Amino acid sequence: MNNIVCDGNDICKQLSNLANDLNGEEEFSQQVKIILSWIRNTVSFNQIKYATSRAEKLTSCICYNNLTVKKLSKEIGLSERQLSRFSNDWLGMSTEQFIHYRKYLNCLNLLHQSKQNLTALGMQAGYYDQSHFIHQFKSFTDMTPRQYREAKTDLPGHIY
After folding, report:
1. Whole-model pTM?
2. CB 110: neighbour CB atoms within 10 A?
3. For residues 3 and 54, what is the distance between their CA atoms, to the nearest angstrom?
4. Which residue has the higher pLDDT, 16 or 25?
5. pLDDT tens-digit map of 79-119
6. How far apart are CA 103 and CA 109, in angstroms?
7. Cα separation of 65 and 110, whole Å?
């Protein structure tokens, strides 16, 4: 569902009711209450608790350098198929995309913490060569690591 526009009713039949309720309310705070109420009524607490637990396990993995889907599924206690479904349903991306995203976040932090050259930084982050590092980084920022380093601010992820 990433980068796809589709009718809300194709996803959940109740979305048109939610849209009607939101359209009838002009105050933002009331719209937030309507959305939260809809979520509570649509998604069970057990589903949210399960998803939160799994998401915390995913994000607490320390090393993403040499991580594979197989290693990650073993580490958090889900089969590769369960992990794939969970990633798509709750994270909005495939497990592979999640691993690449975590590597990217690691690179952002390294770019802010380290003055070492970009090749060494890419290797430290787990990329097997400089072109792979540049290609993956550019897929998230539309900038090369060098362009990012030149435009970065003190806050990782923010640029001028």
Report:
1. 0.63
2. 18
3. 24
4. 25
5. 899 889 888 887 888 989 988 888 888 888 888 888 889 98
6. 10
7. 13
Q: What sign for the dihedral angle of Cα 102, 103, 105, 106? A: positive
φ and ψ at residue 45, rounded to 5 degrees: -60, -40
Q: Which residue intervals of 1-91 are DSSP H helices?
A: 8-11, 15-23, 28-42, 45-60, 69-76, 80-86
Residue with tokens 């369960």: 82
| Phi, then psi, of 13 in degrees rounded to 5 | -60, -25
Cβ–Cβ < 8 Å for 159, 148: yes
Residue in the block written with tokens 């799994």: 54
CATH 3.30.70.260 correct for 62-160: no
Residue-range domain boundaries for the chain: 62-160
**What's the chain's Rg over C-alpha atoms?**
20
**Is the separation of the CB atoms in 119 and 126 below 8 Å?**
no
Distance CA 127, CA 139 (A): 14
Tokens in use for 91? 């994270």
DSSP lists the bridge partners of residue 34 as none
